[in-house]
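Wed. Picked up where I left off yesterday with NAD(P)-dependent oxidoreductase. The coffee machine is broken again, so keeping this brief.
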Amino acid sequence: MRILFTGGSGKAGRHVIPFLLDQGHRVVNADLVPLDHPGVDNLTVDLTENGQVWNALTSYAGLDELEPGTGRPDFDAVVHFAAIPRILIKPDNELFRTNTLATYNVLEAATKLGIPKVIFASSETTYGICFADGEMKPDYVPVDEDHPTVPHDSYAMSKVVNEACARSFQARTRLDIYGLRINNVIEPHEYTELFPDFIENPDQRRRNIFAYIDARDLGRMVQCCLETDGLGFEVFNVANEDVSVALSTSEIIARYYEGVPVRREMGETETFYDISKARRMVGFSPRHRWRGELEK
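Structure written out below (tokens, as returned):
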């Protein structure tokens, strides 16, 4: 497929793009900073500028596409990951403006141009737990996509707004738009750097609902979505199938979720960030677990 990928130079994108290239796709990285990786085409784009987004989505990917003399090829899909990645990087209003305006521009241009599929990054923060002031417990566990999204911060607010915009554009166009509620992204080198401390101090994983997603498995989820057509608008939790600490499910419930309803029987180390919908609807199956990575 010919894919425009926004934010490919970020923490997640710099692993997802190589995965997509390995699947045989052609990828144009639309970002303010280029990605230095063999095979990727880079285009410097300010996504908050509507005209730049339209131009990027009607652009040649590289000089080689001039050779056939048959005109500019169309994009088959847009993967939109670009965003200010969390609170406390820029002022709250600027974060909200940037993240919502960029996503609106991408959705508007992609759907009006008739690009058949948009996959966009939403977030675990939509559930209101990650950046809450003080401790916020889920309404129930495991947390699935039906859990209320009542965020308390500008980043999570922007993601909820982006989901609403995506649903609206899909309702008008009937194209496929899939939102990924991505949990805490872990790069391969971070297992040895971070997880020994997670094991020693599990309290610090509470805000992430004791979950994580390997950046390479996030690429696998994007590929699953690219391969699955006809779902319309959907949102999916994206996480590893295992918890990010050395405690069992029952130990986590006893220590952190006392009194929180447990809606179904869970596996011994099953994630509290439910990925059964992604598994069922697009065939997502993560492969990189922290236990295996630490044993390497």
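Quick read: The radius of gyration is 19 Å.
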